Amino acid sequence: MTEASTAIPRPALLLGWAGVIPFAAFALASALEVRLPGLRPEPVLIAYAAAILSFMGGAQWGLASAEAKVDGQRLAVSVIPALVAWAALLQPREVGLTLCLVAFLALLAYDLLTVRQGRSPGWYGALRLQLTGAVVGCLALALVFD
């Protein structure tokens, strides 16, 4: 793999980190017990995590559908994050946060596997490590202070 294939494109890096801002904001709000009128930060955090998990599964769907031969197993794996996210929305806060945290870690493992297999861009693994580390830290913070 060349350096160019592992260098994270600047737009992906900036947009990816911008996507972490709501995680950080609502995890911090949870830790500091900030309450908006009629709103607790944890359900908002879970809802955002569910949206991003669905998006990340969709990213794998897109990568899978771009291959010359469609891999049904890879397509099936790509829908699991959305299903777990939906289940997380239906759970009590602690369970929902935990489901999201575990799902992000599991999806990271799968994403890294696809990078090692050459089925995802080389830079994708490095980006996912950074972003998932931040997201998992935010979810863990909210769990500790829930």
UniProtKB/TrEMBL annotation:
Keyword NADP: no
The entry's keywords: Membrane, Transmembrane, Transmembrane helix
Membrane-crossing residue ranges in chain numbering: 12-32, 44-63, 96-113, 125-145
Pfam families per UniProt: DUF3429 (PF11911)
Protein name in the entry: DUF3429 domain-containing protein
